[in-house]
Structures are given as C-alpha cells and as structure tokens.
Amino acid sequence: MKHHKELNDVSREIKQLEDSGPEVISIRAAAWICIKMYLTIMVVVYLGVGLYQESNQPKRPIGRWIREQLGHHDFHDFLREQSLELDVPYDEEVPECDYKTMTPKRFFNDYVKLNRPCIFRGYGTL
To answer: Among 57, 92, 110, 118, which is least packed, fewest CB within 10 Å?
Structure first.
C-alpha cells in the first residue's frame, strides 16, 4: 500500500514535468537560483554593514569588546602605540622648507615618502 502511494506520487510528478516541458523547468530553476543568490548577497551585505556599524560605535557591545581585545580606547591611542612599537622616526622640531628652492622631487623624497612634516613660511601670503 505504501509503495503503491509513493509510485502514484512519482508518476504524477513525472506527468507534470512532461506536460510543462524543458523551457518551464529551466525558467523555474533559473528563478530559484536568482532568488537564492539575491538572498545570500543581502545577508552578507547586511551582516557586513551591521558589523561595521557596531564596531565603530565605542559604546556598543561589539565596539567595546574589540577595543578591549586590542587594548586601545580610541584611534589616537592605537596610532601612538603603533608608532612607538614600529620605531617610526620623527623630528623633534618640524623643519622649515623654502618653497622657492624646493623641487617637487626633493620634497617628495625627503618629506612625503618618509611621512615627515615640513613648514613653508610665507607660502600663502600675498
């Protein structure tokens, strides 16, 4: 009895598939794949944006947990500690640069490339 019912169900499904033709079957499969892809992308984007928002808010639980794990209170503490750990060279005084004699190549190699500041006295005056 049980096998007879299952056989009837299978034969009914085969009859429906034969009646619908391959075009309808492929359209149904394509529509289902598109829906699954859309839902997957939406879930990934939603989780990514949510995690980003939560981690950037210092008063939120995830943001607090991340800061506790890293041992930093804010971005300035992080940069200060990282620069000390990496032995980033820095000048005690910011050097003055003469904008009349400084070439772009020298400025780039001496200051921009090394992340060093430079003061151009009188550059913006009339």
So the answer is: 92
